[in-house]
Design goal:
CATH class of the domain at 2-171: Mainly Alpha
Radius of gyration: 26 Å
Shape: globular
CATH architecture of the domain at 2-171: Orthogonal Bundle
Largest sheet: 3 strands, antiparallel
Strand order of the largest sheet: 1-2-3
Order of helices and strands: EHHEEHHHHHHHHHHHHHHHHH
Number of helices: 19
Helix content: 55-70%
Oligomer: single chain
Low-confidence stretches: 168-215, 268-273
CATH superfamily of the domain at 2-171: Transferase(Phosphotransferase) domain 1
Structural class: mainly alpha
Amino acid sequence: MAETLAGFAAGDAPLDARVRIARELARAVAALHARGRVHGALSPSAVLVIGDAVVLAAPAAPSSPLARAGYDAPEVARGGRPTRRSDAFALGALAQLVITGRGPFDGPGALEVTRRVLFEEPRPARLDAPALTPEEEGLLARFLEKRPRRRARPADLARALRAGEAHVRSSRTPTPIPTPTSAHPERSAAAGGAKSKGTPTPTSTSTSTSTATPTATHAIRAAATRLRHLARAAAARTAAWAAALDRRLPPSPLHRAGIAALPLLAIALTLLPRSDAALARDVEAAISAGDLGGARLRLDEAARAGADLPLVEKLRGDLACARGAPSECVRRYRIALAARPELRDDAALRRNARVLLGRDQGCAARRAAALLLGELRDPEALPALEAARRSSGLFAFLCTGDSIERAITATRTAVAER
């Protein structure tokens, strides 16, 4: 009987069966790539498990990025085109889900999961599957590299899991496979009170030791990443302030002392939270001034500081439109609107959606903009929609389908209901 990979991962299959399915998944993706094709939408719902076989479901229509959160590679989450390397990232995340029952970036909500994919290290696999060897865990981590060129290939995972399955089977002979609960020694000790005194205890000790290292490593990496980002932000602010002081103040001991104190002040201000309105003003001002790099830096700081993620996604959409990346722009707008529908009233979002209807945009951008405007039902967009319909010509359907007509109908209906 067929079931999705999500259903299989949530079940109670033994570890050797899970490793076998992960291996078959890796073989299926490797075979797809060998034919020169890219899947581009791998997710737990796009993979079917039939007995011991795995079938990759062809994406009949573009699925929502929210549905693929945690499995889209960072470059795809930012609006880039899917590639074989982004398939490799999705494969690594799916393999960890199958083997451990938990995704490497799982979190409360799709936006939080996307933030973890972009900025955080994946959850170590051995925290949830202690029977994995360090080598197997390291290979899974290689698929989840932020930089595409550093990722492993699907064929590497298929070969490693073939050996890993034999390892799992042999390890089951003397003792049962430790469950994720055995990663907590205090629970194992409490449960062991009912056992005989002759039961050996080194297994739980070795398990707790093997899982402590990934936890500590993960925490150290996260702290180091945070410090690097703070240092970069502080350096940028220090340079700007120092240049301003050099222009306005004469050289003096007080001047030099002020310059020396700037890094500490910059770090302090970087740590201080700012309001959503201030963040929006900063980014909008940077975009208006043409400082797109500064806007991106400000948004990265805000995301790491725990700012409102739907707003950050909306502002990233504004930035993508300013960079001339319409697909990423609409994609980020959709993520933001799915998390917070009230952002549909945002003036910049509506203005950019209307601009994307222009004839100088590609067919994909115009179609996406029309679909977005149909959801927004913005009365001010009616003139732009009708102008786009008139200027499309005889081959309009080949370019935008009926998206413009549907957007006009939805908007007129909304206006009539008011």
